[in-house]
Amino acid sequence: MKTTLTFRAAVLSLFIFAMFIGTWHLATQAPKESAAAQAVNAEYAELMGKGAEKTGGFPSPEKVGSAFVKYLSDPFYDNGPNDKGIGIQVGYSLLRVGTGFLLAMLFALPLGFVIGMSPLMTKALNPFIQILKPISPLAWMPLALYTLKDSEVSGIFVIFICSLWPMLINTAFGVAGVRRDWINVARTLEVNPLRKAFLVILPAAAPTILTGMRISMGIAWIVIVAAEMLVGGTGIGYFVWNEWNNLALPNVIFAITMIGLVGMALDLGFGTLQKFVTYRE
Amino acid sequence: MTAHFLSVEGLSKIYPTADGKPGTPVFEDIHFAIERGEFICIIGHSGCGKTTILNVLAGLEEASAGGAIMDDREIDGPSLDRGVVFQGHALMPWMTVLGNVAFATKSRWPDWSKAQIEEHCTTYLEMVGLGHAIHKKPAELSGGMKQRVGIARAFAIEPKMLLLDEPFGALDALTRGTIQDELLKIVRATQQTVFMITHDVDEAILLADKVILMSNGPLAKIAEIVEITMPRDRTRAEMHHDPQFYRIRNHLVDFLVNRSKSYAGSDAAQLHDAKHPPVVRPGLVPDGTPSGDNGGRPVLKQVVNQ
Ligand SMILES: Nc1ncnc2c1ncn2[C@@H]1O[C@H](COP(=O)(O)OP(=O)(O)OP(=O)(O)O)[C@@H](O)[C@H]1O
Ligand SMILES: [Mg+2]
């Protein structure tokens, strides 16, 4: 019997998922249900020391499941500032990420081009980039809040600053690494600078640039949750924070899962775009 | 000042060494000329500076001294007047075959309509036998086909001169032969002036009117210029029946194997006049004439310009 690798992997994934849910279910069941469960619980209690009674506090998969059903069946309701559908919250987050990301693109791509084309600019700007790059984007938050005086704009600024570096560095790197031969072809054909930039350098560097954009988007999605927890108001990060304050852990788990799913979708999207601009030599 | 189509005068090239000081010149005081419609091959060992000379002619690289004049204009940068076929084909992999040639054509004639460009490109692609593959990407082509696209691209801009850097270096003998024939046909038909680097002696004999022989670098010189005196309509299949063929071939191989290394210290080097390198016609020396009593001097018996 021969099955494809994909199929076997899918079966294994499902199995792992079922095991995970099953274990979770058993671990969060009320004690004294059955001998087997007791045995498991006893073992668990031993492993965890005295913490066994806390398992009662952790939501069971059933509870989390019902949170999924509740939120996903009506994702776009709006009952005031502290009670909005998950679709709306994710929408806010995506809007902020999208705006910050686009602004970073407008800035990073042309600047990256200039840096990549000019060894002088590379050398001159390198120290600044190296110092600014490792700064946690959230460290900018106080400065942003103080200067921009608007939490919404500050959130976008934080996304902007964290998306900037991978895009800038990859664009510069991609542009600087365009094959000498292709540049020489353009030179011998007396191609004007604009045509050269758009028809030779951009397509040649596109795979590298898109890798940078993909990394940026991944970081931006991680950062937005933290930023929204700080800034508050709307968004998936705020949702998590709010549900934590309500001690509604099933909702928190639901939100965490959504963050993962949306992040994966974004990454897949960029993966597809990347395939689109990749060329085979 | 000069009646030649292209004349190279006093060319030398010095690359800086790793610590920034000027190194030994790769070559210096190089003089030669090319007439309109001539096919020139240049042969020499690896590293003697052939590509550097070609790049200077293309305008891609600056000479350290001297220069080149083409059609009464000094070469001071790349120009559409000179089409270049690069060693590694240098096709843009994100464009189709047609797109690659169209990119060049559009650069040459920016005002042409899309249809006009496509028709022009198709003509040239058909000329190199790629009419069926115009919508393919370079990655879908064999090495020989890619090289042919490179040739079509260079021809399509209808340059005054064509510069080829070992265009067939990476091809197998069979493909190489086919493309040589195609190139020969096109060059004969278009009266194209060509400057070509090659490592292949047979290729040079088939294609060239004159073969420039370079001694080994650094400080490479033009040791001599060999005129190929066989009839111009020679073909790859027939040329080895001509008695001249083996005389020329032996002369070239002998240079590459023996004389190119020892050139610097030889008698020939003593007599060397950079402005007038010896022009020889080994094909016309009748067999039986002692063409080398191992001294190096007999070569000069064939010299025709001194
Ligand atoms: N950018 C450079 N910097 C320093 N030295 C260089 C540079 N380019 C070429 N050289 C040197 O110049 C010499 C000539 O190089 P060139 O590429 O012209 O040789 P070539 O005759 O074309 O050789 P091949 O037959 O291997 O292609 C070599 O010794 C090489 O090391
Ligand atoms: Mg070379």
List strands and helices in order, with pairings:
The complex is a heterodimer of chains A (281) and B (306).
Chain A: H1 5-27, H2 35-48, H3 61-73, H4 86-117, H5 119-132, H6 141-148, H7 151-176, H8 180-188, H9 193-231, H10 236-245, H11 249-277
Helix pairs in contact in A: 3-11, 4-5, 4-7, 4-9, 4-10, 6-7, 7-9, 9-10, 9-11, 10-11
Chain B: E1 6-13, E2 27-34, E3 39-43, H1 50-58, E4 65-70, E5 73-74, E6 82-85, H2 97-108, H3 114-127, H4 143-156, E7 161-165, H5 173-190, E8 193-197, H6 201-207, E9 210-214, E10 222-227, H7 243-262, H8 267-270, E11 279-280
Parallel strand pairs in B: 3-8, 3-9, 6-7, 7-8, 10-11
Antiparallel strand pairs in B: 1-2, 1-4, 4-5, 9-10
Helix pairs in contact in B: 2-3, 2-4, 3-4
Bound molecules: adenosine-5'-triphosphate and magnesium ion.
Adenosine-5'-triphosphate is lined by residues 15, 26, 46-52, 217 of chain B.
